[in-house]
Amino acid sequence: MTAPDIGSAEEQARYQRGLEVLSGIDGGGAPAVMDSLGDIAPALAHHIVAFGFGDLYSRPALAPRQRQLVTLGILATLGGCEPELEVHIKTSLNVGLTPAEIVEAFIHTAGYAGFPRAINAITVAKKVFAERNLLPVTEG
C-alpha cells in the first residue's frame, strides 16, 4: 500500500478546503500545532487539516456549535488529550458556545466517563476561561 501524495492536486484541494474551515473557527491556535509537526510528520499535519477539517468538519449535517460539543465530549472522555481539548475549548468559544454550555458538556461526561475525566476537562476549561476573562462561570 502506498501513501497518498500530499502534494497532489486532489490532496491540496482537500487541504485548502480544510484551511478555510479551520481559519473560520480556530482563532489562531491550530497553525502552531501544524508547525510543530512540520519537521517530523508533515503528512500528519496535512491530514489533520485535509481530513479533520476539509472532510469531516465541513460536512453540512451539523452546525459548528453542535460539532464542537461532540468534539469536546469525545476529547473529555478519551482523557490524555488535554492539549487538543484546550484548542477545541477555544474553538468552541469562537463558534459561539458559552462557558456555561462547555461546563455543562463536561458535567454530562461524568456520568459516562467518570468524574476524573470530567474534572480534567473542567480544569482545562478553567485555564482557557481565565485567559479570556470569563471567570466565574454562571449557569444559564
Principal-axes geometry comes out as elongated
Low-confidence stretches: none
- Total strand segments: 0
* Relative helix content: over 70%
- First-residue to last-residue Cα separation: 52 Å
Described by strand count, sense and barrel closure, the largest sheet is: none
Named CATH topology of the largest domain: AhpD-like
Q: State the CATH architecture of the largest domain.
A: Up-down Bundle
Oligomer: single chain
Radius of gyration: 16 Å
How many discrete structural domains?
A: 2
Q: Sketch the topology as an H/E string, one letter per element.
A: HHHHHHH
Tell me the CATH superfamily of the largest domain: AhpD-like
Q: For this structure, what is the CATH class of the largest domain?
A: Mainly Alpha
What does this structure look like?
The protein is an all-alpha fold and 140 residues long. The protein has 2 domains: 1-59, no CATH class; 63-132, Up-down Bundle (AhpD-like). The chain is 72% helix and 0% strand. The protein contains 7 helices and no strands. It has helices at 9-25, 30-37, 42-57, 64-78, 82-94, 99-113, 115-131. The longest helix is centred in the first third of the chain and has 17 residues, at 9-25. The model has no long low-confidence stretch (mean pLDDT 90). InterPro entries: 4CMD/NDH-1_regulator, AhpD-like, CMD-like. GO terms for molecular function: peroxiredoxin activity. It comes from Kribbella soli. This is Carboxymuconolactone decarboxylase family protein. Residues 42-126 form the Carboxymuconolactone decarboxylase-like domain.
